[in-house]
């Protein structure tokens, strides 16, 4: 299968995370909400320890961490959970962007049908949205601004710091989808001003199916988010359902490891990027990197190779590289990437774009030789 270069879709679980989870699954099978025996208490201790590990990575209080099944659910709660407050305060305007993950875009659009006003900002060719656009659109009835930190397809980092600073002074909630940056841009997230933040463990070497919604308190009060599902009081009623103790423990360890290793991982990813860019520069193909690289994550390259259909390249190079042309969530439909369309790129550039993403586990020698093979395959596909 060659080298795995689709870390933005899902990163391989760290062995240390896996062994911590196995230990929990073997020995701590109680329900963390069982109050009548030590098995429950033991499970609760594991959950609360993980909550502290998440809180520590993000420099928030542990009472601000709510476990969910991942960013899709966190994003849904962050948006749909505001409906009661929106009705009461008569604030039904949401600002988001055309490059958000579908769990933000489609959720926001679902509210449009119920009479909300949704403004969807477009980035320019750099892949970034502009803070001024938000300032202009803000009005008395603006409920929420929801902007991602790093884009999953291009790796482009959005100006969430500036947006957060501006919104701090406004009576508007700010939600940040930090799925691609959590555990990587650690200091940036610690310093960021926001009300709600979504994360998924499997993007930073934790298990799939677990994540968190961070709700920041203002004057001791949580943002006015309510549950969107019913049936239990777990996670303070914000996310009902039995807490998956093993998964939560895995998320906790992934956070602890990220806190310890993020600088080392970042350096490793930077070196990997240099290797990929060198191979591109040397291969003799005509190509263009999508998105302004000044603002790009160190673990992502989105590149269009002139005259090479991405679908053909991905299929023909399968034995060397596991790459993709965008979000796995949309890969059943062969429509062009909505992110690159929103950036205003032309059709040919979009249909020839592929995304390579790597991480801590990427072997640099293997990367070099397999990217070389990939680009050789591409040469044979130029039309
Ligand atoms: N937001 C972004 C930016 C993502 O990249 C993803 C996953 N591709 C999600 C949200 C959803 O995460 P999950 O599938 O883990 O719920």
Shape: globular
Fraction of residues in helices?
Answer: 40-55%
What ranges have pLDDT less than 50 throughout 5 or more consecutive residues? none
Structural class designation: alpha/beta
**What's the end-to-end separation, in Å?**
26 Å
Bound molecules: 4'-deoxy-4'-aminopyridoxal-5'-phosphate
- Order of strands in the sheet with the most strands? 2-8-7-6-5-3-4
Largest sheet: 7 strands, mixed
Give the overall average pLDDT: 96
Q: Give, in order, the helices and strands.
A: EHHEHHEHEHEHEHEEHEEHEHHEH
Count of strand segments: 12
Radius of gyration, CA atoms, in whole angstroms? 21 Å
Q: Count the helices. How many?
A: 13
User: Percent of residues in beta strands?
Assistant: 5-15%
Can you tag this structure with a few keywords?
single chain, 383 residues, alpha/beta, seven-stranded mixed sheet, three-stranded antiparallel sheet, 12 strands, globular, binds 4'-deoxy-4'-aminopyridoxal-5'-phosphate
Care to describe what's here?
This protein is an alpha/beta fold and 383 residues long. Helices cover 41% and strands 14% of the residues. The strands form three sheets. It has a seven-stranded mixed β-sheet with strand order 2-8-7-6-5-3-4, with helices on both faces. The chain has a three-stranded antiparallel β-sheet with strand order 9-10-12. A two-stranded parallel sheet has the order 1-11. Strand 6 (173-177), helix 8 (186-191) and strand 7 form a beta-alpha-beta unit. Helix 1 packs antiparallel against helix 9, helix 3 (71-80) runs parallel beside helix 5 and helix 9 (245-282) crosses helix 13. The longest helix has 38 residues, at 245-282. The two termini are 26 Å apart. Bound molecules: 4'-deoxy-4'-aminopyridoxal-5'-phosphate. The site of 4'-deoxy-4'-aminopyridoxal-5'-phosphate has 15 residues, from helix 3. 4'-deoxy-4'-aminopyridoxal-5'-phosphate binds at residues 70-72, 101, 103, 148, 152, 177, 179-180, 200, 202, 211, 327, 329.
């Amino acid at each position: 299968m060659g080298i795995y270069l689709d870390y933005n879709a899902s990163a391989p679980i760290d062995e240390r995370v896996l062994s911590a989870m196995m230990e929990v699954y073997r020995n701590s099978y109680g329900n963390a909400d069982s109050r009548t025996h030590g098995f429950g208490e033991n499970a609760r201790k594991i959950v609360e320890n993980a909550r502290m590990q998440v809180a520590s990575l993000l420099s928030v209080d542990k009472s601000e961490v709510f476990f969910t099944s991942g960013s899709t659910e966190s994003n849904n709660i962050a948006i749909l959970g505001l409906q009661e407050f929106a009705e009461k305060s008569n604030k039904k305007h949401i600002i988001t962007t055309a490059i958000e993950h579908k769990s933000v875009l489609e959720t926001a659009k679902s509210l449009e049908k119920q009479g909300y006003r949704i403004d969807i900002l477009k980035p320019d060719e750099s892949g970034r949205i502009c803070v001024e656009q938000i300032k202009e659109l803000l009005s008395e009835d603006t409920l929420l601004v929801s902007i991602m930190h790093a884009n999953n397809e291009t790796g482009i980092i959005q100006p969430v710091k500036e947006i957060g600073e501006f919104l701090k002074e406004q009576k508007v909630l700010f939600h940040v989808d930090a799925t691609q940056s959590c555990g990587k841009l650690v200091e940036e997230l610690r310093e960021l001003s926001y009300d709600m933040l979504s994360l998924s463990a499997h993007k930073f070497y934790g298990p799939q199916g677990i994540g968190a919604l961070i709700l920041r308190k203002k004057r001791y009060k949580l943002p006015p988010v309510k549950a969107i599902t019913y049936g239990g009081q777990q996670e303070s009623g914000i996310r009902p359902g039995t807490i998956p103790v093993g998964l939560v423990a895995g998320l906790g360890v992934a956070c602890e490891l990220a806190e310890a290793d993020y600088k080392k991982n970042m350096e490793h990813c930077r070196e990997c990027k240099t290797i990929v860019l060198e191979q591109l520069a040397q291969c003799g193909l005509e190509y263009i990197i999508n998105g302004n690289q000044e603002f790009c994550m160190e673990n992502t390259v989105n590149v269009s190779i002139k005259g090479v259909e991405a679908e053909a390249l991905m299929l023909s190079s399968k034995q060397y590289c596991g790459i993709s042309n965008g979000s796995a969530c949309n890969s059943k439909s062969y429509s062009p990437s909505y992110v690159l369309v929103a950036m205003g790129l032309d059709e040919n550039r979009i249909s020839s774009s592929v995304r390579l993403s790597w991480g801590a586990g990427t072997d640099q020698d293997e990367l070099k030789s397999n990217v070389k093979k990939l680009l050789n395959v591409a040469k044979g596909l130029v039309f």
